[in-house]
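Per reviewer request, we include the raw input and output of the structure prediction for the construct analysed in the revised manuscript.
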Amino acid sequence: MSQATKRKHVVKEALGDFVTPTEKQQIVKVTGSRGNNLHEAVTARGVTFLVSMPTKFRKNLWIKRGDYVIVDPIEEGEKVKAEISFILYKDNIQYLQKQQLWPEGFTEEPEKEPEKAEETEKDEDFSDSEDDESDLFVNTNRRNYQYSESGEEENPEEAENCKEERTEKGL
């Protein structure tokens, strides 16, 4: 099987299927990468251990800090205690929450600031669940500028005086 075909099937499986964990599997949160396809994960109870990424996901799907995965336990592992079997995306997490299979330790209620709460109430009228952009990447290396219109408006006479001054100075 070619690399492109393999990638197509792996991505289709990861994005298309809604998976529920079995009795042996558990949902964990990735807290960091340790290299060599090893990731540090924490359970809902707060137990931290290493998980390995299987070869079918390598160079096809990426996970980052804060992502949730379903893992299969490895009995013979001393340091590496589990292997990633599924990567959970936003839709998968919502499905598990509706099925009430989501661990209580990972349930978080985001606190809304008063200004943002008003904006979201206004935006809710116009947005659908498909148009939700909250899962888009936000570049934290750029400053967020707040643009506001000033209450003062220029007088037409002042604008003409500025233009005359510019032409006199040769600008």
